[in-house]
Amino acid sequence: MIALQDLLVIVAIAVACALVVCGVAVVVLLRWRSASLLAQVCVVVGAAVVAALAGMVAVAQAMYLSPHDLVVALWVAGVSGVVALGGASVLGLWLAREVRRVRTLTREVGEGRTVRAVPGAGGGDLAELASVLAETSEKLALARDEAARTESARRDLVAWISHDLRTPLAGLRAMTEALEDGLADDPELYYRRMHAQVDRLSGMVDDLFELSRIHSGTLSLTLEPLALYDLVSDAVAELAPLARSRAVSLSQSGPTDLTVVGDARELARVVGNLLINAIQHSPAGSEIQVMTTAEPGARAAVGVVDAGGGIPEADLTRVFEAGWRGSSARTPPAALAATGDAGSGRTADDAPEGGRRVRDQPVPGGAGLGLAIARGIAEAHSGAVQVRNVPGGCRFDVVLPRLVPTP
C-alpha cells in the first residue's frame, strides 16, 4: 500500500505537470486559431500524452524509481501516445470532413439555395446542426416565396388602387369643368354625381385604412356578447334595397339563440361585405341564402350561399388576397353604381365577364378589398372565413367563437 503522504505527493506532482502542459497547449491553440480542426485535435491529444509523460518522469524522479522501471513506463506511455495521436488524426479527419459539409450547407443557405441534410453522414451535434440548417433553408425558401407573393400583390394592389382612384377623380374633374364652363344642363344632377364620387373615394380610403390596421395588428376591437341572428338580420335589412335593385332576393334562416363574442361594428362589416359580394354575382331572379349555424367546438358560423355559378378551383385560394382580381376588368357595373351604395365602406366584386365569375372587383366606396378585410376581421376575432363551391354557386362561411352558457 502507498502511504497517504506519498499518494498526496504523487497527485500533486501529476496535477502540476498537467497544468503546465495544458497551459502551454492553450497558448498554442490561441496562437493557431486559424489552424485546421485536425491540427487543433492533434494539439489537444498531444497535450494529454505529454502531460502524462511529464507526470510520470517527475514522479519517478521524486520517488527514486529505478532507471529500468522508468524506461519501461516511458516506452509504454510513448507507444500509447503515438497510437492515441494516430487515432486522433483519424478522428480529426472525420470531424474536419463533417465540418466542411456543414460549412458548405451554411454557405448554400446564405446564398439562398434550398439544401437537404445527408442522412447518416455523421452523428451527434454536427448531424443535428446539418439537419437544422436543412430545415432552416426550407423555411427560408417558403418565406422568400411568401415575400415574393406579398410584394407582387402589393404592386398589383397599388396599380389597381391607382386606377380606381383615377376613375372617380377624372369624373370629378370633368363635371367640375362642365360646371365652371356653364355646360351642365342639370347642375343638381352633377352635384349629386360629384357627391357620389366623393363618397366612393372616401370608401376606398376607409377600406385601405381598415386593411392597414388589420395588417399592422392595430385593429381595435370592442368585444361584447352579440346575438348572431340579430347581427345578420340587421345586415340583411340594410342591403335589401340593393338586392331588390338587382332583382335578387335575400332569405335568412337558422337558430336565433346563438351568441358570439365580438365587435358589433366590425362583424357587421364582415357580413355586409359577403352579402354585397353575393348580390354582385347572383343573376336576376335568384335567391341568396343567409344562414346561421352552430358548429362543433363551441363555434358558430354565418353562411352566405349565392347562385353566381361558382369560382374556378384555381382561384379559390386567392379570392381573399388584397386587391386580387380575376380579370383586368375595372369598371363597376352600372346597375350597382346606380344604387347609391357609395360611402358604405364595403367591397364587392365585378360582374361576370363572358359567363365567367370574376371575384373581388370594386363597387362604389370599395377598392377590391372586401374579402381581404372580411378575412382579417374574422381572424382578429380568432375566427376564419372559408369559401367553397356548391351546386349553382358558392358558399362563404364566417366561423366565430361561440359563447356557450354555463349550466
UniProtKB/TrEMBL annotation:
It is found in: Cell membrane. GO terms for cellular component: plasma membrane. Gene3D superfamilies: 1.10.287.130, Histidine kinase-like ATPase, C-terminal domain. The chain crosses the membrane at residues 6-30, 37-60, 72-96. Residues 160-404 form the Histidine kinase domain. This is histidine kinase. Keywords: Cell membrane, Coiled coil, Kinase, Membrane, Phosphoprotein, Transferase, Transmembrane, Transmembrane helix, Two-component regulatory system, Virulence. Residues 347-360 have a biased composition (Basic and acidic residues). Its EC number is 2.7.13.3. It catalyses: ATP + protein L-histidine = ADP + protein N-phospho-L-histidine. It comes from the Bacteria. CDD domains: HisKA (cd00082). PANTHER family: SENSOR PROTEIN CREC. Residues 327-364 are annotated as: Disordered. GO terms for molecular function: phosphorelay sensor kinase activity. It comes from Luteimicrobium subarcticum. InterPro entries: 2C_sensor_his_kinase, HATPase_C_sf, HATPase_dom, His_kinase_dom, HisK_dim/P_dom, HisK_dim/P_sf, Sig_transdc_His_kin-like_C. Residues 126-153 form a coiled coil. It is a multi-pass membrane protein.
